[in-house]
Amino acid sequence: MTPTIRCVLRVKVYAALAVAAGLAALLTGAPPWVALVVAVAVPLVALALPRFIRGAVAGLRTPSPRERPAESMSGLEFEDYVARVARGCGVPVIMTPLSGDWGVDLIVGRRPNRVAIQCKRQSRPVGPGAVQEVVAGAPMQDCMSTMVVSNQPFTPAAQKLAELHGCTLVGGPDLPYLHHTIRRLTSG
After folding, report:
1. CATH assignment of the domain containing 88
2. Which residue windows are transmembrane per the record (predicted)?
């Protein structure tokens, strides 16, 4: 069926719907002006309804920026985001320099319960290298516990290494619960 024939059929269906809606309004005792409004409104609603439903369903499937805050951030913005979450927990935050940080991006909390945090904003799952870096750098920064925070999930190798060293992993779907994890680790 060509697009022209489809368009003509669509117009005929909407015209028939308009006539049927107007006649139904008249037969139920509505004044003629109301029947005219119904005859115009019903096809317009029928025309917009499929698009509205598709948009509503797509909107339900699309996470809001609050649900996935890290999606549009750069690496440095992600570090700032994690630091803001930690500060929101009422603990001091030290942002380490970009170079010479021993693999630790943030130092969160007070002695003796300081946490070394490695932030990884990536487009794929995070491997064991991030865990190795923060575990090795934590003693150099006088931290008692370690954490890797990412916008992505972690590979099985990273999970195994983190479990072996007691490193906390927060990533992917757990990111909205980061503040709970920070509070738990820094409370002592």
Report:
1. 3.40.1350.10
2. 7-27, 33-53
